[in-house]
Automatic annotation (TrEMBL), chain A:
Belongs to the binding-protein-dependent transport system permease family. CysTW subfamily. It is found in: Cell membrane. One of its GO terms (cellular component) is plasma membrane. Its main location: membrane. This is Methionine ABC transporter permease. Keywords: Cell membrane, Membrane, Transmembrane, Transmembrane helix, Transport.
UniProtKB/TrEMBL annotation, chain B:
SMART domains: AAA, NIL. It comes from the Bacteria. InterPro entries: AAA+_ATPase (IPR003593), ABC_transporter-like_ATP-bd (IPR003439), ABC_transporter-like_CS (IPR017871), ACT-like_dom_sf (IPR045865), MetN_ABC (IPR041701), MetN_ABC_transporter-like (IPR050086), NIL_domain (IPR018449), P-loop_NTPase (IPR027417). This is Methionine ABC transporter ATP-binding protein. GO terms for molecular function: ATP binding; ATP hydrolysis activity. Transmembrane segments: none annotated. It comes from Mesobacillus subterraneus. GO terms for biological process: amino acid transport. Keywords: Amino-acid transport, ATP-binding, Cell membrane, Membrane, Nucleotide-binding, Translocase, Transport. Residues 5-241 form the ABC transporter domain. One of its GO terms (cellular component) is plasma membrane. Gene3D superfamilies: 3.30.70.260, P-loop containing nucleotide triphosphate hydrolases. Belongs to the ABC transporter superfamily.
């Protein structure tokens, strides 16, 4: 059945490409979560009349985030080629896509984190301060747990964006399903390969959404 | 326990300076329940936040439990805050934590070991009457229960002072009374000093020993609750006292009565303490050739004694009326003739 519908698909290579896509997505999601959370926290805490209120740092950080968020991803990859070569040593292969993936999506996620944190009731932070909590305690025991559903639903959206970014990165040589669909599907005119790659990407996206939603629901006790 | 000297808080704003707190002097004794009443914008929120260093006065000093809260910073201030806890109008519980974990939060901050924490949380849960609800999340509780969690959390580190920031303003009247009873109970049992800010005279009447009235950032009147009720000095204080002593419809009823009985006089009697229990009306009718109609009356309990107010209508010969009013004045009762009809 699969042979007749997808005559040109090489299943070993399709599987290998799927693993590559999963690898690139997973690493970049973890890194984006960490870097984005830190950037988002900084954006939130340095805002005027907040705990670390500092206009200069806030404005600079905000500008950096906005710039990287605005550059189209495909252009960002190209711009980052020299940087990638220094860090990874190559611009071909699955690892070569990681710097661009992370730099492209962490600022995007940082904004979501900031929005999530701003939705926390100011009164709760005030209550923690009135109990004599240190800023680090407030971050770990108030800000992060109270914004966790927003952080998780944010990373779900970002992870889905990252899967499609990996496909774009694949076009310029990063490997994965996007690379396979472009080289073997599009350039050789084998549309069944493109279709199969698309189906697998859709499945990955659906799985991410389902998992993300169920975690968010479990965490949210409001 | 608390001494505020010449405290000022001035905020810069586009239209010039805003004096949120203006030259406030205040003394609160140990074990006292002290109320600050004022309309919103009177500066009472800023004032109460000076007591735990959430607001730093622009000038003046604030001393709580022997520490100059307006000066200390960092670790010392955080340590002081563990002894000056606060409850809030909107409870400010962490929704992500259960009732027990919310109460444990200040203990975690104070670095209390887990086993001791669990034991203390258990005690506190039953102190505030929430047995069996330890594993519930705040979203599963009613407003009154949430405030009980707030109170338990505030008591966790055995504070010396409890600050109440409009602690009952988001609750219905019945729940308000339950929470107020709990606060009185805690005050008596633990000897805790309590400072409350509110805009409801009912709260002051029900639990406070002394009261300060705030208007425009200043304290315009201070005194024992019963004295303030008996003899309010400032117009704003009179308005607050009327909140509890006169039901809203009193004025209408009196107007109606004045229309209906063009003769005689409508008189407001104020009873304080002992005076409440005298058979004054009986004596009036027995001694004078007059008719007495009761229009409206109310007795309120305060922490220092009871306080009653009674509107009556007297009718009869002018001379008899004057004599009757003089007679009332000889007792421990305040008399005010509302109108000569």
């Amino acid at each position: 059945m699969a042979e007749t519908l997808f005559p040109n698909v090489n299943w070993d290579r399709m599987w290998g490409a799927t693993v590559d896509t999963l690898y690139m997505s997973a690493i970049s999601v973890v890194a984006t979560f960490l870097i984005g959370a830190i950037l988002g926290l900084l954006l939130f805490l340095t805002a005027t009349d907040n705990i670390w209120g500092n206009k200069l740092i806030h404005v600079v950080l905000s500008a950096v985030v906005n710039i990287f968020r605005s550059i189209p991803f495909i252009i960002l990859i190209v711009l980052l080629i020299p940087f990638t070569k220094i860090i990874v040593g190559s611009m071909i292969g699955k690892n070569a896509a990681l710097p661009a993936l992370i730099i492209g999506s962490a600022p995007f996620y940082a904004r979501m984190v900031e929005i999530g944190l701003r939705e926390i009731d100011k009164g709760v932070i005030e209550a923690a301060r009135s109990m004599g909590a240190k800023t680090t305690t407030i971050i770990w025991k108030v800000l992060l747990p109270e914004s966790m559903p927003a952080l998780v639903s944010g990373i779900t959206v970002t992870a889905i964006a990252l899967v499609s970014y990996t496909a774009m990165a694949g076009v310029i040589g990063a490997g994965g399903l996007g690379n396979l669909a472009y080289l073997e599907g599009f350039q050789r005119g084998r549309s069944d390969v493109t279709l199969m790659a698309t189906i697998i990407i859709l499945i990955i996206v659906f799985l991410i959404q389902i998992i993300g939603d169920s975690i968010t629901r479990k965490l949210d006790k409001r | 326990m608390i001494t505020i000297k010449k405290a000022r808080k001035i905020y810069p704003s586009k239209k010039g300076e805003v004096k949120a707190v203006d030259d406030v002097n205040l003394e609160v004794k140990e074990g006292e329940i002290f109320g600050v009443i004022g309309y919103s914008g009177a500066g009472k929120s800023t004032l109460i936040r000076m007591l735990n260093g959430l607001e730093i006065p622009t000038s003046g000093s604030v001393i709580v439990a022997g520490r100059e809260v307006s000066k200390i910073k960092g670790a010392e201030l955080r340590k002081a805050r563990q002894e000056i806890s606060m409850i809030f109008q909107h409870f400010n519980l962490l929704w992500s934590r259960t009732v027990a974990d919310n109460i444990a939060f200040p203990l975690e901050i104070a670095g209390v070991p887990k086993a001791e924490r669990d034991k203390r949380v258990k005690e506190l849960i039953s102190l505030v009457g929430l047995d069996g609800r330890g594993d519930a999340y705040p979203s599963q509780l009613s407003g009154g229960q949430k405030q009980r969690v707030g109170i338990a959390r505030a008591l966790a580190n055995n504070p010396k002072v409890l600050l109440g920031d409009e602690a009952t303003s988001a609750l219905d009247p019945q729940t308000t009374d339950q929470i107020l009873d709990l606060l009185v109970d805690i005050n008596k049992r633990l000897g805790l000093t309590i400072v409350l800010i509110t805009h409801e005279m009912h709260v002051i009447r029900k639990i406070c020993h002394r009261v300060a009235v705030m208007e425009g950032g200043r304290i315009v009147e201070t005194g024992h609750v019963l004295d303030v009720f008996k003899n309010p000095q400032q117009p704003i204080t009179k308005r607050f006292v009327q909140q509890v002593t006169e039901p809203e419809e009193t004025k209408e009823t009196v107007d109606h009565l004045l229309d209906r009985y063009p003769h005689g006089r409508v008189i407001q009697l104020t009873f304080v303490g002992e005076g409440v229990e005298q058979p004054l009306i009986t004596n009036l009718i027995r001694k004078f050739e007059i008719t007495v109609t009761i229009v409206q009356g109310k007795i309120s309990q305060t922490q220092n004694g009871s306080y009653g107010i009674l509107f009556i209508h007297l009718d009869g010969e002018e001379e008899e009326l004057d004599n009757a009013i003089t007679f009332i004045g000889q007792h421990e009762v305040g008399v005010e003739v509302i109108s000569n009809g």
